[in-house]
Amino acid sequence: MNDAFLYRDLPVVDKRVHRLGLVFNRGIDAAGVETALDAGINYLFWNKIRKNDTFDVVKAALHRDRERYVLAGGGGLGFYGGGVRMGVERLLKAFDVDYV
After folding, report:
1. How would you class 67 by CB atoms within 10 Å of its CB: exposed for 0-12, middle for 13-18, buried for 19 or more?
2. Of 26, 60, 77, 90, which residue is 20 to 30 A from 99 by alpha carbon distance?
3. What b/e sequence results for 23-37 when a residue is b if at least 16 CB atoms lie within 10 Å of its CB, and e otherwise?
4. pLDDT averaged over the chain?
5. CA angle, 79 as apex, 100 and 88 as ends, to 5°?
6. CB distance 48 to 76 below 8 Å
7. Rounded mean pLDDT of 45-62?
């Protein structure tokens, strides 16, 4: 399949991401996450901070190769400025990363 279709450039973060992202709300286990990451999925949307086996896989992947992945968040981050900021700070702390 054509790489131009599989990937999309995100100029705002200066990264190329797979058009298929991975969200962690339900139904995927640690083995499924590892398979997706091995297949090239690099856009990760974490919607709740839950420390479970999928969390551990994502955190380990981010620490192995932070520049490969785009980590986005939503859901529990809040709706207004202060809530969004606190949610992002929790996400940064939970994954021990410098940016999302």
Report:
1. exposed
2. 26
3. ebeeeeeeeebeebb
4. 86
5. 25
6. yes
7. 85
Phi-psi region of 70 (alpha: psi -120 to 50; beta: other; left: phi over 0): beta
Contact 48, 58 (CB under 8 A): no
User: For residue 38, what pLDDT is reported?
Assistant: 95
3 state SS of 8:
strand
In degrees and rounded to multiples of 5, residue 75 shows phi and psi of 70, -95
Structure pTM?
0.83
Q: Of 77, 57, 78, which Cα lies nearest the Cα of 69?
A: 57
User: φ and ψ at 52, to 5 degrees?
Assistant: -140, -170
- 73 neighbors 47 (Cβ within 8 angstroms): yes
